[in-house]
TrEMBL record:
Keyword Acyltransferase: no
Similarity field: Belongs to the CYRI family.
Subcellular location, record wording: Membrane
Organism: Poecilia latipinna (sailfin molly)
InterPro entries cross-referenced by the UniProt entry: CYRI (IPR039789), CYRIA/CYRIB_Rac1-bd (IPR009828)
Upper classification of the organism: Eukaryota, Metazoa, Chordata, Craniata, Vertebrata
Protein's name in the database: Family with sequence similarity 49 member Bb
Record has Membrane as a keyword: yes
Amino acid sequence: MGNLLKVLTCTDLEQEPNFFLDFENAQPTEAEREVWDQVDVVLKDAKAILDELQAYKGAGQEIREAIQNPSDDALQEQAWAAVVPLVGKLKKFYEFSQRLEAALHSLLGALTNETYSDPTQHLEREQALAKQFAEILHFTLRFDELKMTNPAIQNDFSYYRRTLSRMRINNVPAEGENEVNNELANRISLFYADATPMLKTLSDGTTKFVSENKNLPIENTTDCLSTMASVCKVMLETPEYRSRFNSEDTVSFCLRVMVGVIILYDYVHPVGAFAKSSKIDMKGCIKVLKDQPPNSVDGLLNALRYTTKHLNDESTNKTIKSMLQ
């Protein structure tokens, strides 16, 4: 309880961490190697998942024709044949979210333990793990952006479930049923029903990590998140650091990570990222976003507006609210 009170009442935005986190070149030390190897296996598949999601076209045409011509068996079969492999992909994305959550648990375990006395030391001395944590956040926001703009995902899955239950009622053997049984279908359906399913997986996973590790003070986790946000902000607003980025892509990577970690903090911290007691300089972070070229960060500003938990709380500073209007 003392720890929780400490988190709730902490009002000082301490001296911001001032070091360069090398998102481009950080390599694991011997001490980091074991966790880094586990997480690397998962992250190696992340790009392929994003590529598949970006290329996901859906079976809208086939489904429409089947629904408009319910007695035409050939059209029903065509729609089913189009949907089954797509459901295989949706299942694969869902299963990847489970692997991502397990990877996040491994990283949080390493970045919040008592090896170092504070989160700044953890992030500065375990840069390869911090980079992997950043890559998970970057993937998460990108996945959810793509999912939000693709209504075919939920339409395809709904059609699959409706058709499957009709086949069961009529005792028609369903090729493809082995792919996704009823219990798994319920879980997948819940996953895609969320506007930002990967972010929900990460925030639920982080909350679960905190509750499962009662020996770790909650602020070990929340301070790790707020420090990561501060590091990103300081690197983006400090010309000396920013000039060390070899690629302009690192700027957008850093911005996306900063926003992802703010949203995660807002879900996990008892009073969120926008309260006076928050250890994240929200005004500074929003200013950094607004200083970027016009239209380049609309998606990230919208993520703060619409996917955070506490922005609309009465306790949120009016200046912050107006900056995000």
